[in-house]
Amino acid sequence: MKAFVVEKYGKDGARAAEVPEPTVGDRDVLVRVSATSVNPLDKMVRNGEFKQLLKYKTPFVLGHDVAGVVTRVGSAVRGFKAGDEVYARPRDLRIGSFAEYIAIDQDDVALKPASLTLQEAAAVPLVALAAWQVLVGRAAVKPGQKVLVHAGAGGLGSTVIQLAKHLGATVATTARTDSETLVRSLGADVVVDYTKEDFSKVLSGYDLVLDSVGGENLEKSLTVLKPGGLAISVVGPPDAGFAKQLGAPSFMGLVMSTLSRKVRKQAKSLGVRYQFLFMQANGSQLRELAALYDSGKLRPVIDRTFPFDQTLEAMAYVEQGRTKAGKVVVSMGPDND
To answer: Dihedral, CA atoms, 42, 15, 307, 83, nearest 10 degrees?
Structure first.
């Protein structure tokens, strides 16, 4: 089958290749890929940014989001059958959605939202799971709380705005001037145009900040939290919890703790907290999210769609910052923009 593989770590390390179809284990669902989408994580994995913790053996197929049709199931699989339309974020070390077929553990798969096309559903799993794991899992956001999400027009930000609003939060976001109408339509109550204003000068008293920018943006985010508030970053620096999540040796926990020492110290001095989030595959959470898409509480935001043979071009488009809003989808079908 045709796939896009990481042959060696680095910017020019991915290429098109012919690879064997995946073997299907007892607990696996074999999916014919209809569409996938590009995430910043694809670039990070391709570049080897997590190679000390995520030990992929090159060459390996890239891609963290998938929507498609089940063609075969393993002997121990319950709840899925050939012909089912599903979506998933396959677990780490079993990624590979930039391909014609992928075998996924049944625990990572869910029936796709009935209201979404396969192309729309492919834009959802990673960002929706990250949003759920931040807002519901880590922060347990409750009605009346205040949530700030950076880059509200992005794939993750646009999802977090909608889910936080559904949970009853007052939502602020940072966005460019030309994205204000979009983020307000998604539910943002307060929009800070980062090209004109410094969010840390105009916002205060927030319960939660979700940072996807890092660096100085993260440090400023700590200052808008109320005492006891929580800043969660999906771009780092990682903390000891990340190493523990991946089952890494204890010394890696010390390494991660050292990497985040500065920001954790800053947070402590302000009376707030800092955590790093690396989202995890979870089929049961995808089932709950599917109900929210089908009820109209959530909707995917898609920037544009590329044909499968232009997967590397789609990655470059995202890396170059050309995305105006939402996700970039890669489709196997003939109906591409």
So the answer is: -70
CA–CA dist 286, 309 (Å, integer): 28
294 in helix, strand or coil? helix
Q: What secondary structure does DSSP assign to 39-67, as a single string?
A: -HHHHHHHTTTTTTTS-PPSSEE--S-EE
Beta strand pairing call for 85-88 and 109-111 = antiparallel
Name the amino acid, one letter, at 49: E
CA nearest to 148, candidates 237, 212, 216, 227: 212
Within 271-319, strands assigned E span 273-276, 302-307
pLDDT value for 247: 83
- Structure confidence at residue 122 (pLDDT): 98
Contacts of 258-265 with CB under 8 Å at 24 or more apart are 260/236, 262/237, 263/218, 263/219, 263/222, 263/237, 264/239
Count CB-CB contacts under 10 A for residue 130. Answer: 26
152: left (phi over 0), alpha (psi -120 to 50) or beta: alpha
**What are residue 96's phi and psi, to 5 degrees?**
140, 40
Residues 6+ apart with CB under 8 A from 324: 153, 178, 179, 303
Separation of alpha carbons 182 and 193, rounded Å: 13
Question: What pLDDT, on a 0 to 100 scale, did the predictor assign at position 334?
Answer: 60
Residues of the chain with pLDDT under 50: 335-337
pLDDT tens per residue across span 88-113: 999 999 999 999 999 999 999 999 99
Paired sense of beta strands 66-73 and 85-88, if any: antiparallel
The reply to whether the predicted model has a pTM over 0.85 is yes
- Cβ neighbours of 29 (radius 10 Å): 29
SS3 string, 82-139, reads CCCEEEECCCCCCCCCCECEEEEEHHHEEECCCCCCHHHHCCCHHHHHHHHHHHHHHC
3-state secondary structure of 238: coil
Question: How many residues are given for the chain?
Answer: 337
Residue 86 neighbours by CB distance under 10 Å:
24
